[in-house]
Amino acid sequence: SDEELHARIVEAKAKMGSSLLILGHFYQRDEIVEHADYVGDSFQLAKNATEHADAQHIVFCGVHFMAETADILSLPEQSVTLPNLSAGCSMADMANIDQVEDCWSQLMEACGKGTDDKGRVPIIPITYMNSSAALKAFCGRHGGIVCTSSNARAVLAWAFERGQRVLFFPDQHLGRNTGMQMGIPLERMQLWNPFRPMGGSQAMTYAKAKLILWRGFCSVHQRFTVEQIEKARAAYPGVKVIVHPECSMEVVQAADGTGSTAYIVKEIEQAKPGSVIAVGTEINLVNRLAAQYPDKTVFCLDPVVCPCSTMYRIHPAYLAWALESIIEGDIVNRITVDSDTAAEARIALERMLEVHP
Ligand code: 13P
Ligand code: SF4
């Protein structure tokens, strides 16, 4: 029963004390969030993983790329567990290393290899945190960097100081929305389709581009529409609309604000009692915020609900099982990134932590 699972988790946590660190993403269900030592956005959780050398075991209640990042940034003697290995991210799966390597060689061919008069290299690769360790390692190898939704603008600015162009993967929307904020015209942004090789006539188009966007997207955030925002504004005059930057450019432009999950949480926390806030992000987070602030009206823009089905796979039964396996000394679902990949990926992650400490 739910009560039994709750009791098993509480008991396991008590047995492990400070040797255990449970990290939970904001999209996790309430029955998981209540057990987490830290709940945060993907940037905050990555930092949390670097700050607890005393915790021998890190249990990551989130998705696969987050647990990989925790393993890369934590000490080698710390274990990282993802309670359910099938908790992936469909967006992260939209770019694999072979496709990125292939894209890179085609772009290098199209854009030339020399630096310009400001000493900038032809292209800097940026990978969104929502990507495999292999793609982070690619960025480490090629002078690139990692970003999250909370620092994409600062990271892009860093990249444009060093490169004439940026190849941004896998989320086209975060890339495009951030490019727009920085004043890059749409004509200087070019979409990269990994399933269609570049035709000879396209080489010039890519060479002229400033921002090359991988054709990935989040199926949860892609559901939000401008019509939903219009409906919310008609139903609640004065409503504040805030959305995650994984939403389309049209949705972000129609909203009043955009930012990471931590930004969304903060906006709602700081809103005056009586405020009405419509949110474009995952439903578990929105519902939790609505319950947490009964003096404010908080609702999700998508009336049909939009859970992240993979985040939801971290069920308390998996958490209890994972914790007990640590106590029994036979850890299940441990996430280990091989040391060569981890070393290169760490370079790209540390660049990000330098830009956005
Ligand atoms: P945040 O970094 O804003 O938490 O976003 C992670 C994510 O997967 C959003 O879909
Ligand atoms: Fe991936 Fe979208 Fe889920 Fe975030 S909400 S973990 S981007 S599928």
Automatic annotation (TrEMBL):
Record's keyword terms, sorted: 4Fe-4S, Cytoplasm, Iron, Iron-sulfur, Metal-binding, Pyridine nucleotide biosynthesis, Transferase
Cofactor(s) the protein needs: [4Fe-4S] cluster
GO molecular function terms attached to this record: 4 iron, 4 sulfur cluster binding; metal ion binding; quinolinate synthetase A activity
Residue positions binding iminosuccinate: H25, S42, Y128, M129, N130, S149, H244, P245, E246, T261
UniProt KW Cytoplasm keyword: yes
Coiled-coil ranges (or none): none
Subcellular localization: Cytoplasm
Pathway it works in: Cofactor biosynthesis; NAD(+) biosynthesis; quinolinate from iminoaspartate: step 1/1
Major subcellular location class: cytoplasm
Signal peptide (UniProt feature, chain positions): none
Cofactor: binding comment: Binds 1 [4Fe-4S] cluster per subunit.
Recorded catalytic activity of this chain's protein: iminosuccinate + dihydroxyacetone phosphate = quinolinate + phosphate + 2 H2O + H(+)
EC number(s) given by UniProt: 2.5.1.72
Keyword Membrane: no
Binding site for [4Fe-4S] cluster: C89, C218, C308
GO CC, any one term: cytosol
Function: Catalyzes the condensation of iminoaspartate with dihydroxyacetone phosphate to form quinolinate.
Record-stated family: Belongs to the quinolinate synthase family. Type 3 subfamily.
Stated name of the protein: Quinolinate synthase
Organism: Bifidobacterium aquikefiri
Parent-protein start and end of this portion: 65 to 421 of 421
